[in-house]
Amino acid sequence: MTTAPARTAQDDYTTVRTAIGAYRITAPLVRVSGGDRYEFLDLFLAKSSEYVEPDSVREALALNADGSPFAILLHFEIGDDSWLLPRTPVTAEELTGYLAALDTPADATVEIAPEGWGASAFEGPHAWAAAAKFVDFDISGLTLHGVTEAAIAEEPAALAHLARVGTTGEYGYLLLSNAPEAGHAAAVEAVEAEGGAEIGEQGLARVQAEAGMAVYTAGFAGLPVHEADLAWMVDWNRIGEFQGSEDLVKPTAETARITAVAAPAGTALAAGTPVTAGGQQVGTLVWQAPSANADEELAVALLDAPFWVPGLELETTTADGTVAPLRTVTQPRVIARSLTTRIH
Questions:
Q1: In a 3-state reduction of DSSP, which class is residue 129?
Q2: pTM for the complete prediction?
Q3: How many Å is the Cα radius of gyration of the chain?
Q4: Is 4 in contact with 106 (CB distance < 8 Å)?
Q5: Which domains does the chain have, with CATH numbers?
Q6: pLDDT per residue as tens digits for the range 59-95
Q7: What residues have CB less than 8 Å from 26, skipping those under 6 apart?
Q8: Bridge pairing between strands 21-25 and 197-198
Q9: In this structure, are strands 147-149 and 118-123 parallel, antiparallel, or unpaired?
């Protein structure tokens, strides 16, 4: 009896790009209930809850007291509860400490990692076909950032919700339930029935980086909001109304900021290595994406103005001192197949 060869990061990358990849979400969930829950959320989210719709999900940035980014969070509105789920690396302990330091309103209850709840996700150009197995209506009716009740066949009594939201630029869905093991098994089964597979972190991280969201894996690398290119997640009309907002700096054309750079396949890049143009340092490498795309290496660099524009030829050095060419590139780096694959 032979065993199937172990999947590689490139296998997982190809699965997300051409079919569907399923994965378990390990970030800690937060449930916020009570009549003052929006008042609580507005204490720290950089987008107001004023116009949030029922049965919807959005991304929002949370700041530390000094204005530095703490986490990007998914904010779900489901029934009478708000749910939060970190997109960027954060532990349950860090999240607990962060939320505990806020002045929680009287009629707001915050539960970190409520017992029994968990989430799984699946993404790819055919992800809608797997998602259809969890609802009793035409899956095309679940619009982007919508949330609906879902059913897990093996756990008919379970509470489950399906959200159309993703991280890769491909079709994406997230299954939230109080039967997470059964929910994950059902997601993997639905994905495999459509030619997909369960995937690991590296292949997924590469697709996310190509979509312009390296932050999901790399975190903020100690950068402020303006250098981390997160100003688009801030409601600048609410300065002073949420934690850390008074210390924010608006980006300008002269601001250094992170930029995607490509290098020849096989190039090993190291965070902290200088990036040069004509022999002069113009920036620093921040993070290299996993090598799951055989065409090239992709990295993120913090570059001085005006070097963060696409199409520039730059240089850096590898660990062995070899000079390696870089070029600044646009994102998304790869055009998602979901843009030309219809839900039907």
A1: helix
A2: 0.96
A3: 21
A4: no
A5: 9-206 (3.30.1360.120), 220-328 (2.40.30.110)
A6: 999 999 999 999 999 999 999 999 999 999 999 999 9
A7: none
A8: parallel
A9: unpaired
